[in-house]
Amino acid sequence: MRRRESFLLVLAVWVASGLSMPVSAATTEGDTVLIGLNMPLSGSYSQQGEDELKAYKLAIKMLNEKGGILGKKVVYSVKDTKTDAAVARENAKELLKEGAVMLTGGSSSAEAVAQSEECEKAKVVFMAGLTHANETTGKDAHRRCFRWYHNGHQSAKALASILDEKYGKDATYAYIYADYIWGLSVLNSMKNVLEASGAKTVLEVATPLGKKSYVADLLQAKKTAPTVLVVVQFGNDMVNCLKQVKQLKLGEQMAVVVPLMEEHMAHSVGPEVMQGILTSMCWYHSLADKYPGSKAFVEAFEKEYSKKPGNAAATAWVDIFQYADAVERAKSFDNVAVIKALEGHKFTLLLGEEYWRDWDHQGIHPTYLAIGKTPAESKNEWDLFTIIGERSGDELARTRAENPVNLEPLE
Amino acid sequence: MKTLSKIARRWLWLLPACWLTAQSSLAADADANPALRIGYLPIDANLPLVVSFENDQMRFQAGRPSLHQFRSDTAIEAAIRVGAIDVAAVSAPVAYAMAADEVPMLVLGVCHRGGSRLIGRTGGRLEDLRGKVVGVPGLDSSENIRLAQAAAKVGLRPGLDYRTIRVPYRPALDDLKAGRLDAVLFPEPLGALAEDSALGKPMEAGGGLFDGALGAVLVARKDYIREHPEAVNEWLKSIAVACSFIELDIRENGAQQTAIFQSKYMSVPRETAARILAQRAGGLRFEAAAADRALFASYRDTALALHLITRSIELNDVLNLSIIEAALSP
Prior knowledge:
heterodimer; A: Rossmann fold; seven-stranded mixed β-sheet; B: alpha/beta; D-Maltodextrin-Binding Protein, domain 2; six-stranded mixed β-sheet; globular
């Protein structure tokens, strides 16, 4: 009598009726353009993905309030990569089928590389989000991929100077690293830079993404009694690993370095765990005190979400506004015109003047060295680091000899 | 064996509901904010729930929203009864039926008007339904009530001059095609599918049978309202913003952004979703409001007349419009 049947059958009916999704790539007809947002909203890097998504949405909202890009309103389609490169690739294919003029996202380098490959095939610009592996603008670089985030080489070079100074050139290092493209990339960069100055590697332990217990790995590290324990983990994995470092009181026996930091990871564990940990970042919200662009970003983000943005959000912010700016300057959504507008382009957005390097599409800007604040130093839940140093982008970036990449021809 | 099968059929719906409850309880332990479990159907009328979630899920502070799609109002009703969801949108008569059955829930307001269409095999007018059979999603659906009200104005009496029967969606289209049904009245996007598949044509119905009509209503469990008023308030505010968002998107972007959300959560192709919204199929409008009591009363009275609810209910027992009024106040 009171049954109301199966509305989910709608899907089956739509599919059965042969109505297909639009398949044209990079659709710019009509009054709107589509941007594909493809980042982890579940899995190990979900916090970073969520931070990116917040910034993407806010940036797009602000763009649309000013009339969009070339008079077209921007609409977006969000997909969850689940912190899985294979899912990221399939998502990218779907977004390209939907007609996205640009894809952006990441939070794992494997995801970014997969998306970059699909975008290159489809001749659609990919503004990489959080991706730190050298490969993204190295051996896996593509002409249509631009990456603002700094890379493992830059982190390693920036950290090496201070590690040498602090622990001497004959210090020993133990590494616990994520066993995929990013972890290996950072491991090799750190080893290359540190060993070149005389440091010795005493342990390398590879761990799978999503691992819950690092106790056995950490006990192994403890036995080697290194001067420095380098935790090459990210996202929830880093959070879990550092919690266990704290539980085992390893920080009292050796220095702990996390080559790449993102605000949400530190926020998850708080200053009790983060205090004294040395790290590198491409951006931190305290830069709002120095740069007007960062101040505007942090204020807008806080107003919208009642929290501070992390550097995943910062890269998302740069990606959207830099793409929009390039299209406006090119007066076209055509990927070739946009690439020409981006290559070598100098701009000021969150920091001082920076630029997109034309031959590998790496964003060139400073890398910051930071140290975790103690609970007493931390003024609020987001006040977790003190920036203790800054290295210029040009000083840290790989040379052409170090990164012999040959991007594809434009046409 | 037959008895066992009957029992299984009757109570099987409890399994997913219980599972959902258990999962939600586990999740609730993980965070201080209460879970806000939102039930919805994949129909255009429920779009504000989806848009609210998509836009604000990362902004909610008083509750942790999660979206749960159901296949029918009956399934949503079951989930509310067992406490597996906290808030939802359901067809107005279903809410009355729950109230008549003393289910502890309240109707808070509405977030849309219109959005259902009468599709006849060969088109035609409302008057042409005399002697005909019309498929509706449920005898206790808003569509059935509205049809009865509109038909009365052209002298047609339900059950005597025309007959409505409950039909599952796909069979409805098959039945329409085969001539077993003369017309269907369903919420969008289902009418669009019938048109796109050339199974029928919209019937003229005096400027729009469902224009401005009451469809789904926003409901919440009484205990949830009592224990987490801030979460309900936040959700209603978000629904109101979502309604404005959809209306603005329809006006300025041809509903493209909303269509992307709809394709994600309701599996409707983007172009079709945008077309339905841009054309305002069935007089579809989105606005969060308390809605006027007279409209609620008229549905209740029609439901009673059609014996869809077994006893009259005091509107004050089922309506609490002050909550949404407070949420919508500046």
